[in-house]
Amino acid sequence: MAMYIMKGLCVIGIILNVILMLKKNKEMRANPEKDPVLGMNGEELWQEQKKHIIPTSVTGFVANFLDTLGIGSFAPSSAAFKLTKSVDDVLVPGTLNVGDTVPVCVEAFLFFGFVEMDVMTLVLMLVASVIGSIVMAGIVSKFDRKKVRYALFIGLFILATVVLMKNLNVGPFGTQGTALGLSGIKLVVAVVGNFIFGALMSIGVGLYAPCMAMVLALGMDAGCAFPAMMGSCAYLMAFGNGPKFIKEGRYDMVASLTQAIFGAIGVFVAYAFVKSLPLDVLTKVIVAVVYLTAFLYLRDAIKKGSAA
User: Fold this and answer.
1) Which of 78, 149, 267, 279 is 20 to 30 A from 71 (CA-CA)?
2) Distance between CA atoms of residues 269 and 168, nearest Å
């Protein structure tokens, strides 16, 4: 019964995200005042963002295809946005969290029940990630470009390092536990850890790799990482920082729509047709690109500050 409730919340999250996004897009496009940070009014922003519809559509499909395989979507999306110059730096955190809500909710719907994980452990981890994202989103949505660039540099550098450790099976990734639930101090660590990971999602740091590392380090079955990380991301994006970023209007209207549509398609393709892929080399390539992107954000933060 609990799994059916959680799956139902995924469907509600999808509907909520789409309604809030479409309503806010309409509101922003009708606003004649120029945004003090972006220097354009709503309709001008919409027309400018439409120019990048092809690269953001491709990014949505590929990144969420990879996301379903456990690689994560934030790192490749951030890299693609930066390298194609398709999303303004200041809008990257919001676009990642708003645009990927639909595909990640689809993932969580598909992966709840993937293993018989202890429901109490799972629920507490999900709630912690949502609270963490709400707390941090209110702060990040008010960042200028310089702060966003520094935050993305730090976050992406850490994320690339964790993903590389996962790929090389070192650190916590070199262990394999069998537990399906946690109690005592280990449960406290899992809850606090997911709170922190949920908060970091608001600056564009993906939760998948660090959550998987924590699950393995605490001695849990590797399969528990999928409902834990996908459910955490789905709920925190749908009910936590996603609505906050939408309320503040700090996301790319067109990119978020293409991420939602083509990202969901990428999820279904990966889930339905991909059984096993040689991901080792692909993951290393992604890590290299993410490191490069992190230093590009650092360079722009130093050289450009808050300038576009």
Assistant:
1) 149
2) 27
Residues 6 or more apart whose Cβ sits within 8 Å of residue 250: 90, 91, 93, 94, 141
Quick check: 117 and 227 in contact, CB under 8 A? yes
* Nearest CA among 105, 61, 79, 58 for reference residue 157: 79
Nearest-angstrom CA–CA distance, 69 and 71: 6
Whole-Å CA distances, 125 to 42, 230, 234, 276: 38, 11, 12, 28
Distance between CA atoms of residues 106 and 82, nearest Å: 26
Distance CA 258, CA 120 (A): 35
pLDDT at site 34: 92
> For a pLDDT cut of 90, what percent of the chain falls above it?
40
Q: CB–CB of 74/206 below 8 Å?
A: yes
Are the C-beta atoms of residues 131 and 193 closer than 8 Å to each other? no
* Helical packing angle, 2-30 and 42-50, nearest 10°: 110
Average pLDDT, the chain: 84
pLDDT tens digits, residue range 80-108? 998 899 999 889 988 998 999 999 999 98
CB atoms within 10 A of CB 50: 11
pTM of the entire structure? 0.77
The token pair at 256 is 């978020």
